[in-house]
Amino acid sequence: MSDKRDLTAGPAWQNLMQLAGPMVFGIIAVISVSLIDTYYVGRLGTQELTALSFTFPVTLTVSSLAIGLGAGASSVVSRAIGAKERDEAKRLATDSLALALILVMFVAALGYLTITQLFTLLGATGAVLDMVVQYMQIWFLAIPLLVVPIVANSIVRAVGDTFWPSIVMVASALANIAITPIFVFGWGPVPSFGIAGAAMGTLIAWLVTVFGAFALVVWREKMLTRHLPAFGTLAASWKRVLAVGIPASFGNAVNPIGIAVATALIAGFGDVMVAGFGVATRIESLSVIPMLALSSAIGPFTGQNWGAGKCDRIAEALKFCYTVCALWAAVLAVVFWFAAAPVVRVFSQEADVVQSAATYLAIVPLSLWGYGVVIITAGAFNALGRSHFGLGFYLIRTAVFYIPFSFVAARIAGSEAVFYAIAIANALAGVVVAGLAMRWLSNHTAPQPAKA
Q1: pTM (whole model) above 0.85
Q2: DSSP 406-451
Q3: In terms of CB atoms within 10 Å, which end of the chain has fewer, N or C?
Q4: Segment among 5-14, 238-247, 424-433 with least mean pLDDT
């Protein structure tokens, strides 16, 4: 752990850009896994693409456990680093990884045993449901290979290093790009596994993540300790991580739950609409990468500055992030207004699917600044140890606006109206959350750091 990555000094915007820059490439790599699956599975047919669209909100929800635990680990570790408590940071990092391994094994087993029931509830039937089961059986077996490395990378980022975690994610994505088509379509002695092959490619790619992430956290950063703690110390560490991790996990799950509800509503208009919505939300996930990078960068920045007693820098950083979100959303709106259909055709050639996805991308992107405000503000408050606020911000967007508006739109006007409802929900949530965050920060002072 080197002080050259001290985030408590220098211009706030510069700290954020140095953190977010490498994360752009790392997040592109992570999201590309989903896009690569969509691209190759789309070549198999509309039913296969529909099946994959049903899996998207569920895989995001389960992955939210990893993101939440990573947020918990990053929060407690970055605050310990900001307060110059180096040994405590190592203890918390080690205990966080142990907790992640235990929890993900339980969730993977539970998910594996309830695949059919879960996706039947979401509206998958017949051949589409059979394909979903084939994909998810492998995915649930693979998910421990993703969750623990996500937490390990979060610990490294808490130290202030986003470059090497991004390299690990890029390597994993390249492995996925190379391997997935072999299992989907078959090659040489390897038979075609269809949609299940996409999950197999993902599993192998995640093995790369495991080795890379552990190399960083164990050897490069030396953030793990070999000393076994007393049970009371372990329980105290887990309590601190879970105090942030549980609300953060639920918060990160709220968005995919909203997508799952919207998917179920749109399923009433036919499989083609579901396929189009699935393609559009995957493209959207790629388009918001700068916002996602800032949401990753704001965590270690906020944690270290709160631990160092510098609350004013946190407010300054959030204002900078909000400005970036507004500018980026405007760029996206212009790009997709003119180029939505050609982009969608990369993933599907079916006219109705292209029309559905392109309609979404012509309506929603301008409002994505509000989504960016929500995820960045939630990331900051998770790092502060106020993850219940972060959860509340996600709920404002999804439970207060997104789901109710989508439900009413689907019942009254049809699938296209749901897209307008989503756009309005994003915009309103951004205004409300930014106002609440600035008000809270103006009324609170960071604790004074411990003396080195």
Answers
A1: no
A2: HHHHHHHT-HHHHHHHHHHHHHHHHHHHHHHHHHHHHT--PPPPPP
A3: C
A4: 5-14
